[in-house]
Amino acid sequence: MEKVTENVYTNTKIRGCNPSIVLTTDGAVFIDTAQLITPLLEMRNFALKHGKIKALINTESHIDHIFGNHWFAGECPVIGHEKLSNTFWKIPEAFNMSTYDYSLDIIKRQDPEGLPFMPKKEDYIINPPSITFSDKMTFKSGNHTFKLHYTPGHSDANISIFVPEERVVFVGDTVFSNCQIWFHTCDPDALLSSLRFLSTLDVDYIIPGHGPVVDKTYLKYQAGFIYEWLSAVAYGIAKGWSKEECIKNISFADRCPVDIGQEDAMEYVQSANVSVIYDYLTKV
Questions:
Q1: pLDDT in the model for residue 95
Q2: Can you give the pLDDT at residue 92?
Q3: Which of 48, 80, 179, 218 could form a disulfide with 58 if both were Cys (CB 3.0 to 4.6 A apart)?
Q4: pLDDT attached to residue 262
Q5: CB 219 within 8 A of CB 199
Q6: What does the pLDDT read at residue 284?
Q7: Nearest to 254 by CA among 228, 223, 277, 219
Q8: String of b and e for 90-109 (b: at least 16 CB within 10 Å)?
Q9: What are the φ/ψ torsions at residue 143 (nearest 5 degrees)?
């Protein structure tokens, strides 16, 4: 794990999201859970050495953020946006397998040491949020304040968690740092609006959903990359290209890699991104 501040830890070197921990005087608060079991259990053991686990917050419903919720079932409340229930424990149809089988396949290929700890399908506890909110929510744990904000865009259920005492904000997949951005469930207008909101927070550290920890200057770069995608597809539409032609001719695969362990998803990311933006630009 990477120590970001005195009480904030994250893991940016594994497949999936950047699962994080805030250590408070009343226990550990987790933000998202690892998609691989071995680092998940390591993070749990680390947190438990400092006290109980106080809460788990999910920034969104995508599987790389919520896979590990099973290991927190019955231990602490799970917190998330009220819209999480619409897409919780679901994966894109293009993956052509069940969510459990998809997760099991990843563990077999990328975390074989964790395979003995993978529960059977019938024993797997999905463990969705038990506490939800619509726009804003604040709670205290020990000496720390957790300000939860609805920041949609990457999906319609994304949230960000601002911890002022540590001058850090956890933004989930609103930011992909130095790696491919996924638009597969994106609303570009909402995403750009959320980036503008995040720029108003008084923070030193932004912990993204994927990639290295950054500061607020990266928000402008992320917005710029989104506008590049929009411009590229708009140019294709202006040339009279169909959606299929845009998918064939437009790619940012040479810009940066897909996040760790997801190299085989590059083609899916490019085609899904073009498809979503094409539909956005051509909607009535």
A1: 82
A2: 83
A3: 80
A4: 92
A5: yes
A6: 63
A7: 228
A8: ebeeeeeeebbeebbebbee
A9: -90, 10
Tens-place pLDDT, residues 64-90:
999 999 999 999 999 999 999 999 998
d(CA 53, CA 214): 26
Whole-model pTM: value is 0.96
Q: Per the structure block, which two tokens stand in for 266?
A: 């590059």
Answer positive or negative: Cα dihedral of 13, 15, 17, 21. Answer: negative
Whether the CB-CB separation of 255 and 181 falls below 8 Å is answered with no
List Cβ neighbours of 11 (8 Å cut-off, separation of 6 or more): 1, 2, 18, 19, 20, 34, 39, 43
Amino acid at 154: H
The partner residues of 81 in beta bridges, in order of sequence, read 133
Best CA proximity match to 124, nearest among 100, 146, 147? 100
Q: Please report the domains of the chain, with CATH numbers, ordered by start residue.
A: 2-223 (3.60.15.10)
Residue range 87-102, pLDDT digits in tens: 999 888 878 899 999 9
Rounded to 5 degrees, what are φ and ψ at 21?
A: -135, 135
Q: Which is it for the CA torsion 268, 274, 276, 279, positive or negative?
A: negative
Angle value at C-alpha 37, between 69 and 268, nearest 5 degrees: 85
- Positions in the chain whose pLDDT score sits under 70: 284
Q: Is 3 exposed, middle or buried (0-12, 13-18, 19+ CB in 10 A)?
A: exposed
